[in-house]
Amino acid sequence: xxxxxxxxxxxxxxxxxxxxxxxxxxxxxxxxxxxxxxxxxxxxxxxxxxxxxxxxxxxxxxxxxxxxxxxxxxxxxxxxxxxxxxxxxxxxxxxxxxxxxxxxxxxxxxxxxxxxxxxxxxxxxxxxxxxxxxxxxxxxxxxxxxxxxxxxxxxxxxxxxxxxxxxxxxxxxxxxxxxxxxxxxxxxxxxxxxxxxxxxxxxxxxxxxxxxxxxxxxxxxxxxxxxxxxxxxxxxxxxxxxxxxxxxxxxxxxxxxxxxxxxxxxxxxxxxxxxxxxxxxxxxxxxxxxxxxxxxxxxxxxxxxxxxxxxxxxxxxxxxxxxxxxxxxxxxxxxxxxxxxxxxxxxxxxxxxxxxxxxxxxxxxxxxxxxxxxxxxxxxxxxxxxxxxxxxxxxxxxxxxxxxxxx
Length: 407
Fold this sequence. Notes:
Structural class: alpha/beta
Helix content: 25-40%
Strand content: 15-25%
Largest sheet: 5 strands, parallel
Distance between the termini: 44 Å
CATH topology of the largest domain: pyruvate-formate lyase- activating enzyme
CATH superfamily of the largest domain: tm_1862 like domain
């Protein structure tokens, strides 16, 4: 039986496509490492230059030591680097991820399918592409405009994951808020349909751009009230400066973001807010950065993705005046430190509280990672049965997770 190792970089959409690939590879097994594999698949990302450089170094490391293994390069980088890959790594194959399963089957005829190992947490792709016009983003140039899967197709995939043992479903897309704009329906319609599935599970909705959901905010609030849905929203703001947001082409203002957050928090008191910031965007002044720092303090998001601006060829921002690297690094350090302070404070407010939490994955040193209804990660230092909900009491907190004990 052929053993396949998949290494995935980038967003949750890439991760969901890798999971879908493994589901399609019936009659093959999943390898835990390259050394155990007959086939190595690298699902690539090129959203920022550092990730791209990391992947190229990884290929350079793997390639000389394939030892007869098949190397398949797929994902975002294939669109731009196919010819370079074929020239530099002639023993590898570069292709779209939709073609990988059939390619492997053609070279390694599958054996009789074995029973799939239950996965408590599963990712399901709902769309790819977006409707935005961000001046810095190369992914939109690669993925194009939004292409949504039908509600029926997504529901069928979710039901399959649930039948395979999943208890937590992540709805993955470049911009989940743009789901259905090309089909005549919207994200709340999808959530409502999935919540009708007769099964015990939780839904985590993926990243939603502010501009994509301003017109459906009320419908989203209604959809999030269903007990199947985690009280968790990921809405990237990217900057606290309206001037920078306009240069970024984000399509929203700081006020739009704050009003959206306020509406969700008013509806769901324990809401977990996640957002993104880009520091060092071209022409960003000290005043612009202070506005971002102040916004972080004001809205106090629990989870923050902080990225230093990365110049990408072909984007409008690549022609703008760059910020000195030293300044960008310092601003990133300051923002990260403030986020850790805010997150630790928010998490420590929960010490002593009790929650029902779903055991989702194994942690380090015999621990288990659980998630409560607000998608707060709770680490319990015991090996627990995955897929089961437990009553826990919070006994300590860090900036990134809560520490709990069973009641």
